[in-house]
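Recall that a protein's primary structure is simply its ordered list of amino acids. Everything else, from secondary elements to tertiary packing, is in principle encoded there. The following example makes that idea concrete.
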Amino acid sequence: MRNSILSRLRTTATAVALVMAQFLWAPVVLAQDRATSPPPAAAKPPPPLPAAAPPPIPPDRGDADTDEAPQVTVIHRDQQLVEEVRIHGQLRYIRVTPAHGRPYYLIPDAAGGTFARRESLDSTLMVPLWVLFTF
C-alpha cells in the first residue's frame, strides 16, 4: 500500500513539473519564433561612399620632440647592462641589469654627487620585511 501511494505521488509530481516547465518555456519559444522571421524582401543596398581625399600630412616639428622624450644610453659592461636615462639633458636615473639577478636603479641625489640604490622607481616608503621566525 505504501508503494502505491509513493508511486502516485511521483507521477503527480512529475506531471506538475512538466506543466510548470511548459509554462516557463512558452515565452522563450515564442520569442525565438518572432526573432527568426524572414527579413523584408525589397531591401536596397546603401549608396556608395564618395571618394574622399586623404588627410593632410602634419607639418614637420623638427627637433622639438627630442627635448620632451627621455634619452636612453645603453652601455654593455662586464656581465651587465647599464641604461642611463636623461630628460632635458639631466641624468634622472641609471638602470643596472646584472647577468644574474634582478635589475636595480641608481638615482642621483639633489647635488648630483652620489647615487642612492633602489629596487624600483617607486617613491613610496619601503618598510623592511625581515623574517624573524619561521615555523
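The chain has a mean pLDDT of 79. Residues 84 and 94 are 5 Å apart (CA to CA).
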